[in-house]
Amino acid sequence: VQLQASGGGLVQAGGSLRLSCVASGRTFSTYSMGWFRQAPGKERELVAQIYPGGDKYYADSVKGRFTVSRDSAKSMLYLQMDSLKPEDSAVYYCRLGTSYWGQGTQVTVSS
After folding, report:
1. pLDDT at 26
2. What CA–CA distance (Å, rounded) separates 25 from 11?
3. Strands 9-12 and 105-110
4. How many CB atoms within 10 Å of residue 59?
5. Which end of the chain is more exposed for a tag (fewer CB within 10 A), N or C?
6. HEC states along 49-95?
7. Residue 78's closest CA among 17, 9, 11, 14?
8. pLDDT in tens, 27-45
9. 3-state secondary structure at position 34
10. Whole-number average pLDDT of the chain
């Protein structure tokens, strides 16, 4: 299984970014998929998750600002991030199921 995340970058506070993650090697639609992030000196935390049936979970810190979605036909996972804050700065990782991780993409939000 391979996961490739992309879409990170530098953005000003209040701006938006869209992260993408493409998965290969597994039947994509039968797994939950999630976005995690890890800031320097902090533990990796779950940001958003989408389940095979379509239910979604968001961390309280991103509710109302981030939207997770998937396109099973394309084996793609997305994270639309709006109203970004400096505290959203981190390396963002996508995960397939509970075992497979992408390589991470850096998001930096300047104040």
Report:
1. 67
2. 33
3. parallel
4. 15
5. C
6. EECCCCCEEECCCCCCCEEEEEEHHHCEEEEEECCCCHHHCEEEEEE
7. 17
8. 677 889 999 999 999 999 9
9. strand
10. 95
